[in-house]
Design brief:
Helix 9 crosses helix 10. The chain has a four-stranded parallel β-sheet. The chain has a two-stranded parallel ribbon with strand order 3-5. Helices cover 43% and strands 11% of the residues. The two termini are 15 Å apart. It has one domain. The chain is α/β, with parallel strands linked by helices.
């Protein structure tokens, strides 16, 4: 069986670890996950949510139509665009005044765009519309999937590694922006820093406990369903 070739545009390297671990939980076919953004060899191109914004903007500048028909993505079977849902609470000016000016001139979707949570889905729908505005003449096609962990990919990790009655999971998990930073404040023997090395240590647990993640994180279910629909 040939390997499924998947491209990933993400905020950071830890998000790559989370997405890969999630895919291993429900994809039966072998796959190769290639991170397009952020590029380790070109850090000047931008990281974080601003890097994803710039990738989308440039994609729309060079291509019209479904993203998977972009010649620069011809070597991939599937494209995943990742953004943490907490981006819905941010402002363009946090990426610099130049980006804020471009957002105004191009009439990109409004930020912040967060809605009352729960339910988290309302904020996700608003953020999806914002991403669409960044893409301009390009658009998400049948083989392009949004990955929007709420409030961040660290929430999925927390759901996978912490006991269900842990205080970090006590509130509405997908509405609580303190969960991911809370992993860094756990007692030393359980502490998980937001580094690729630390996240990689717990990646297998996320794969094995994916059912628990989906039970607590509706956006994990949305992501899985979207991927399975995209690959047919």
């Amino acid at each position: 069986m040939s390997e499924l070739r998947i491209a990933l545009v993400a905020e950071g390297s830890t998000d790559y670890v989370i997405v890969e671990a999630a895919l291993k939980a429900f994809l039966t076919a072998p796959f190769i996950l290639t991170q397009l953004r952020p590029e380790e060899t070109r850090p000047g191109m931008g990281t974080g949510w601003g890097g994803v914004l710039k990738w989308c903007w440039h994609a729309g500048e060079r291509h019209s139509g479904d993203l998977e028909t972009d010649p620069t993505l011809a070597n991939f079977d599937l494209l995943i665009l990742h953004l943490d849902v907490d981006v819905a609470t941010f402002r363009y000016s946090q990426c610099g005044e130049e980006v804020a000016d471009i957002a105004h001139s191009r009439r990109w979707g409004m930020l912040p765009c967060a809605r009352s949570c729960p339910p988290v889905r309302d904020s996700c729908l608003e953020l999806e519309a914002v991403v669409s505005s960044w893409l301009g003449s390009a658009r998400l096609g049948c083989s392009s999937v949004l990955c929007l962990p709420a409030q961040s990919s660290g929430s999925w990790l927390a759901a996978a590694v912490l006991p269900p009655d842990h205080q970090l999971l006590a509130n509405h998990l997908e509405c609580d922006g303190s969960v991911e930073p809370g992993l860094c404040r756990l007692p030393r023997q359980h502490r998980i820093k937001k580094t690729r090395r630390d996240y990689q240590r717990y990646a297998q647990q996320l794969t094995e406990n994916w059912a628990a993640v989906k039970s607590m994180c509706s956006q994990a279910r949305v992501f899985e369903n979207s991927i399975l629909a995209a690959i047919g």
